Amino acid sequence: MGFLDRMSTVVQAKMNKIMDKIEDPRETLDVSYEKQLQLLQNVKRGVAEVTTSKKRLELQKAKLQMSLDKLDGQAKEALQAGREDLARKALENKASLQAQSATLDQQIADLQDQQQKLMDAESRLAVKVESFRTKKETIKAQYSAADAQVKITESVTGISEEMADVGMAVQRAEEKTENMKARSAALDELLLSGTLTDYSGSDDLDRELAKAKAQSSVNDMLAKMKEEIKK
Amino acid sequence: MIVRILGDGQFRLDDNLLDRVNKIDNKIVKHVSQGNKAEFARDLANLISTVKELAEPLDPVEIIPSDLIIPPSDLSFEEAKQVFCDEGLIKG
Questions:
Q1: What's the half-sphere exposure (Cβ side, CA atoms, 13 Å) at A6?
Q2: pLDDT confidence tier of residue B87, bands split at 50, 70 and 90
Q3: What is the pLDDT of residue A151?
Q4: Among candidates B25, B60, B83 on the partner chain, residue whose Cβ is nearest the Cβ of A124
Q5: Of A1, A19, A26, A2, nearest in space to A144 by CA
């Protein structure tokens, strides 16, 4: 059996769930339409969830960027104070944060892609639902019971496939955002617990740097005084 | 024939091109059974881009069942294996 046949089986199983247990074929149309409207709401919610997750990651990214800029500044100051060892430490920390930042960029791009796909799916579904509504009224009004049965099966099958597809897309998006939420919460935890803040705003580094700067200004003052005494 | 790429909607594909699609399909089956992750990802991407390139997107106003269902582009290797284990792509 080919891979695509398997995929059809998967989708067919989903469709059967959507269409199950309706006795009166005309009722099928209304029930299906109700389900379509529900699904449209679900997709909208899915889009909102993905958007929220993306914003959250963008915020984290901004925080990381601030830390990166700070480390850069610290490295420069350390060099000016003649402390290459401190500059090296700041740059090492910067490199670690840069790796985190690249991962975040990738995740933000993934969510962006997901968001776009769901939005496209939403607009396709909205068009189909509207088209189904018109069709359903025509079928009810114009067809005899026997002919209607064929038309109903055709359009309900067609729309159920779309619903199975969109339903799966929403579910996949939800799973992805759940995963990302967990990872993003872990990153928040790291930032809070200090594992990452050690890198960024490291107290040690700040203290060492302050000491180095004080030392170099003491040296300057000493040199100045020596000059004055000589005169 | 009507083809659906899950997550991307439906397309109208010339019947003559089915052979080409089937060939890639067979390769994907082989990669999944042999555990070749990289080749699987490459041929899945190849399958989707081939269909997108050769087929016309179907007007969403039309309500037609598809003749062929293609998995979503972000289907992972693990998910592909599940498709073969009768667990389905998504449980429930």
A1: 21
A2: very low
A3: 83
A4: B60
A5: A26
Q: How far apart are CA B75 and CA B67, in angstroms?
A: 20
Q: Is B74 near chain A, with CB under 8 Å? A: yes
- Nearest-Å Rg of the Cα atoms of chain B is 13
Q: Kindly identify which residue of chain A lies nearest to residue B33, measuring between CA atoms.
A: A3
B13 has a chain A CB within 8 A of its CB: no
Q: How far apart are CA A50 and CA A112, in angstroms?
A: 8
**CB neighbours of residue A9 within 10 Å:** 15
Check residue A24 and report its DSSP letter.
S
DSSP conformation letters of A99-111: HHHHHHHHHHHHH
Three-point CA angle B19, B22, B26, nearest 5°: 140
SS3 A202: coil
pLDDT digits (tens, 9 = 90+) for A27-61: 888 888 999 999 999 999 999 999 999 999 999 99
Can you point out the beta strands (E) in chain B? 2-5, 9-12, 56-57, 68-70
pLDDT in tens, A118-132: 999 999 999 999 999
Mean pLDDT of B35-58: 94
User: What does the alpha-carbon distance between residue A218 and residue A222 come to, in Å, rounded to a whole number?
Assistant: 6
The ipTM of this complex is 0.85
Q: What's the rounded Cα separation, in Å, for the pair A55 and A58?
A: 5
Q: Which of A23-27, A115-119, B3-7 has the lowest mean pLDDT?
A: A23-27
Residue A3 touches partner B, C-beta closer than 8 Å:
yes
- The pLDDT value recorded for residue B39 is 94
What are A103's strand-pairing partners? none
A165 touches B: beta carbon within 8 Å: yes
Q: Going by C-beta distance under 8 Å and a sequence separation of 6 or more, which residues neighbour residue B5? A: B11, B48, B51, B52, B70, B72, B73
For A167, name the nearest residue in chain B, comparing CA atoms only. B7
